Amino acid sequence: MVTGSDLQESRKAIALAEEHPGLCYATVGVHPCSANMFDKHPGGPSKLLEELEALAIESKKRGLATAFGEIGLDYDRLYLSEKEPQLKYFEAQLDLAVKVQLPLFLHSRAAGEDFERLLKARIPKLPKRGLVHSFTGTLEELQSLVSLGLDIGINGCSMKTDENLEVVKAVPLDRLQIETDGPWCEMRATHASAKHKGAAPPLPKAVKKEKWDKDCMVKGRNESASINHVAHVVAAVKGLTIEEICDAAWDNSIRMFGLGVTPDNDAEP
Description:
By secondary structure, the chain is α/β, with parallel strands linked by helices. It has a single domain (about 5-185, about 240-255), classed as Metal-dependent hydrolases (TIM Barrel, Alpha-Beta Barrel), CATH 3.20.20. About 40% of the residues lie in helices and about 10% in strands. The two termini are about 15 Å apart. The relative contact order is 0.09.
């Protein structure tokens, strides 16, 4: 799934999905750190919302857009977008997601109370709910979000500390999704997750971007191939087999986002 972070990037994500049918899918939305774009948009915020809606509806019909996002709140980076526009346009985009009926692809940093408050009124109107991606919150936040029916996305940033790992351990198997958030959120040797990677197979060789090769990773870039390391660490932390983690995460992802596949249990995607 290729993430849209503003209108232009959402269009690029759709173009990639169109170029690689059945392999790439896209999200449509404006990231909280880009919330200031609404007031700067030619024609104003309503025009941007109209364009997002049109893009989401068209690309959903074509099987290209599978989620509305990345939307949410980020109070760690208020220097990029102030709190007021973040709140205003998160709420507006939530209403748009309900109208379009796409599951949510959500972002939350240091904004738990406001984040949950705005979601609570709208989640019942979204049968497939959504995913809180790259989750780094507390155990209490985890429990609250799961109680709303949301899934939790785990990647390298979710497992930096021992406290993070305790939260990962508590994620219910039927609410777990795994991700890389490439090209960011890699697992590093200094992270608490490093001591749990023992069973993971080695990643492909990494080369400098100037020597790009289709069979290699690029140095300094977190790529999709590293998702298998995420799965191995989650399995180790939860005391489950890699097969149990992969089967659960796969079925949860397909059930929520579709991606052209029916889950193993034959539930509607």
